[in-house]
Write a structure and sequence with these properties.
33% helix; alpha/beta; elongated; 3 helices; 6-stranded mixed sheet; 153 residues; Nucleotidyltransferase, domain 5
């Protein structure tokens, strides 16, 4: 009888508490690759590239790689690039990003996907705030990506 009481009094409440803590701590990130799966490009549109907005979060200034401290938002056409510099060191301009995301959602109403490319040394809090802003502005599918490695000599 005592082992069953120990089970109900201590172990089961502990497990329930751990499940609720884990559930709060999880954040759904979609880790995707650039390639698609299946399809030949005929009939079903499997080979077509979806329009996707990209947000680059950068921390360091590196002129050879065209990096600067701040954010860079690239529209689906890849030719229009909006640069949002820091307000001060390590302080990103989320208000300006929010207004830009509102404008982009009005311009690309069918686009529900956005990619957040996080360069090295960017804080996790910055990534989460950016993802939250994207979801608040109607971009329901947020892809997390690493930048392409560039070697500069």
């Amino acid at each position: 009888m005592v082992p069953i009481m120990n089970l109900f009094v201590s172990i089961i409440p502990f497990l329930i508490m751990m499940i609720s803590i884990s559930q709060v701590a999880l954040i759904a990130l979609s880790f995707t690759s650039d390639g698609g799966g299946g399809g030949t490009g005929e009939g079903g549109g499997g080979g077509a590239q979806a329009e996707i907005v990209e947000i680059h979060l950068m921390l360091k200034e590196l002129t050879q790689a065209e990096l600067f401290p701040g954010m860079e938002v690239r529209e689906p056409d890849k030719t229009t690039i909006h640069k949002i510099p820091w307000l001060s060191e390590d302080v990103y301009d989320f208000d300006r990003l929010n207004s830009l995301l509102i404008d982009l959602k009005e311009k690309y109403t069918d686009t529900a996907e956005i990619a957040v490319i996080v360069h090295p040394d960017v804080l996790y809090d910055t990534l989460i705030r950016t993802i939250d802003l994207c979801k608040d502005n109607g971009f329901v599918t947020v892809h997390y990506r690493n930048p392409k490695t560039q070697y500069i000599y």
